[in-house]
Hints:
By secondary structure, the chain is of the alpha+beta class. Helices cover 39% and strands 23% of the residues.
Amino acid sequence: MPSALEQFPLFHGLSSELLVRWEKFFRERSFAKRQILEFPSDCLEPIYFVRTGRIKISYLSEDGKEFTVACLSPGEVYSVHSLAFASALENSVIIYLGMDKFRPLLKECPELSLRLIRLLGNILKDTNDVILDLAFREVSVRLAHVILREGHPAANGQTIVKLPNFLDFTHEQLAALIGTTRQTVNEILKRWERQGIVALKRGKLAVLNWEMLSDKGNLFL
């Protein structure tokens, strides 16, 4: 019988025997929309995998301003660390385990350790990109970067681009991702709508022209 862990890229291709045996170390938990991810006190340094839904990783400044550095989709993994906090963008289900239980798995399977190192490198790169955006780029460029990163079909492994391409992000969520206000996001999107880059329908954002949006972010895909 296939292991439930096989749905997560970190475990793809590993021995089914190993995965079935490892399942007993994982727990499952559901979170409602906007709920902060919290874990039992006996789960030390949790590492968690998104089974369904989406999870937002953010930092809060001293004056209460929120800066979102990542949005996790099904299959992605993250860990509780530093001062970042995680909350559910929608009703979500995750599986998790403490680092004390995860370390033996790494020792048992060296390939898993190599995969984790590559994964952490990618997470660090993505976080650095977000920091650079917040520090040095104007708001419209940051917004283009986020939409391209989170919504472009190529970024999600798709080869066929269907237009219009709707994104499952509210204006409030986009504002948190680029460190600005919802009003500013609305103004930029309305300007892009007049230029034929996006369409705004019933509160949803649809991309009509990825090439023009890429030019706004000065990116080459």
